[in-house]
Amino acid sequence: MSGKLNLTGADPEDSQERIKRCFRQRAKELHPDLTVLDDDQAESRMRRLLDAYRVLCDPERRSEYDRLYGRALRRRRFDYRSFLRSRADPVSLAKLVLYDLMRSRDREALATFGQLQSHVDSDLASLLDYDDFMDCAYLLAEALERDGAYDKACEYYLRVYHAEASRPYFRHFIAEVIERMRDVACFKMAGSAAPVDSVRWIEELIDLDLSDRESAFFCKRIAEIYSDEGDLAAARRYLERALRLDEGLAGVKKLKERIGLHQPVMQHRRQPT
């Protein structure tokens, strides 16, 4: 919960009105005409800010925080980061990863995450509560992406997706995770990872509960990857699959010519549920 306060700039003792004022101020700072962040970063921060605002304005969740605040206040009287660094147990390391990620200390967080991986019990989901795990996993995926560790970034984006998808409510991360994975798997991995890695993660996206149009885009992207690798048979299979999902799929004319796909493809129709 402390992470939610950090995002809005509010203090634990603040009233609902004060939290609202802090939220409005942070929202203004993320306005496209004022922020120094690029569009993707600003949008990501805004979504997380909105999520934090909803949580802090929920009376039940806020009451839960107020009950825990006494313990948190005692912890703030000493250097919490130094305390965590002095300990080598997995729970403390996981909390330190989150602590540094919340403060945009990517280098320190990734170093601690690497240290955590040497432990048998290194799964963040088992070391943190649900909210902290979701914050940590998402921020870690972003940090890994910025560091060029695209394979590991996709792994954590996908974990966030499945954790959110398993819940009946509050699926705030779903759309953003898909967009992030799409950008990494379809484009950022090109030239910096083996084609098979890109294909593997795009296949993971296709396996999610997406629309035919979205799945068709991903199939077309795999067809392009195989075409670039000279595997025209595989490229044709994936492009045919894409066109069965979306017969009006854009940007396929040159690809069809390049891979020798000349026959019309019968469109796939989803069965009504």
From TrEMBL:
SMART domains: DnaJ, TPR. Transmembrane segments: none annotated. InterPro entries: DnaJ_domain (IPR001623), J_dom_sf (IPR036869), TPR-like_helical_dom_sf (IPR011990), TPR_rpt (IPR019734). SUPFAM superfamilies: Chaperone J-domain (SSF46565), TPR-like (SSF48452). Residues 3-69 form the J domain. It comes from the Eukaryota. This is Chaperone protein DnaJ. It comes from Geodia barretti (Barrett's horny sponge).
